[in-house]
Amino acid sequence: MNGIINVLKPPGMSSHQVVAHLRRLLNTKRIGHGGTLDPGASGVLPILVGSATRLSDYLLDYDKTYVAELTLGIATDTQDASGETTGLNTDFQITPLQLADVLASFQGSIWQTPPMASAVRVGGKRLYELQRQGISVERPPRQVQVHSINIMAIWHEGDSLGFGTRVLLRIACSKGTYIRTLGHDIGEKLGVGAHVSFLTRVSSGPFHSEQAHTLEEIAQLASEDNLAFLLPMQAALPHWVQVKVHPLVEERIKNGNYILPEHLLDVPSQLTVGDDVVLLSLEGELLALAEIRMAERLICQPFRVFVK
């Protein structure tokens, strides 16, 4: 079994637990995920099955989109609702314009310090493992990109925003962005404290929540021997040129040898040097990833082969 499952992860399960669950359900050992999602968060978690695990580096690089609820006036040690309260501010009033100005200041290139309740390794140890031992260590900040922060809704009383105000945000960002930390830092800059009280990932690269399957749906389909939940491996690379190849050159591809442009069938666009190409069999099976290069002439050179 080879392919990608767009899973709608429920809150309360870690990404590793989802992988373990599907490993048992599908009776397959070679399985992984395409980007960790916090246990308390829900949403899109791409699962890679079989040979698709070799595409994980591409999935990890994709931008993500989240919907997050920010609760003002309460800060926690995990920066979400699962932690202990570390700050309580019940006496403040800010305007929606002040909030909008602070949100705007976090768009673009920003620096974040990973929270202790994260999977980042410091000195060979996961930060969340150290936190469970009551240990806090210095964490080097990292630069991330926040492409946009949009207010979807605000729940509050009166004309100003006070203690307990909940703000629903839609956030588009680069890989490695900690939404919990973003929420915490927004609260700090507002001067009132805040934590992320709800979080769901609505997209990860080409995978969106509207097309995702719950674990219950996958179990039901699998019990009927229906693999409708399994996407082809090339679904991970929708922006690459995808072409089918002549059957007579499949053996060359299997051996990692280059093929010529005339061996490509139904090329959707003009190929140029440097183009990344997905090579497919006539039946649509992913054979290899390749690059258009210039030798004595244009060639198509496989660099990651999926068939033996």
SSE blueprint and pairings:
Blueprint: E1 3-9, H1 15-26, E2 31-33, E3 42-49, H2 56-60, E4 64-72, E5 74-76, E6 85-88, H3 96-105, E7 108-112, E8 121-122, E9 125-126, H4 127-132, E10 142-155, E11 166-173, H5 179-190, E12 194-204, E13 207-208, H6 215-223, E14 230-231, E15 241-245, H7 250-254, E16 264-265, E17 276-280, E18 286-294, E19 298-305
Parallel strand pairs: 3-12, 15-17
Antiparallel strand pairs: 1-3, 1-14, 2-3, 4-11, 4-12, 5-6, 7-10, 8-9, 10-11, 12-13, 15-16, 17-18, 18-19
Task: Describe it.
The chain has 308 residues and is an alpha+beta fold. It has three domains: 3-62 and 205-234, Pseudouridine synthase (2-Layer Sandwich); 64-204, Pseudouridine synthase, CATH 3.30.2350; 240-305, Roll (Archaeosine Trna-guanine Transglycosylase, Chain: A, domain 4), CATH 2.30.130. It has helices spanning 15-26, 56-60, 96-105, 127-132, 179-190, 215-223, 250-254; strands at 3-9, 31-33, 42-49, 64-72, 74-76, 85-88, 108-112, 121-122, 125-126, 142-155, 166-173, 194-204, 207-208, 230-231, 241-245, 264-265, 276-280, 286-294, 298-305.
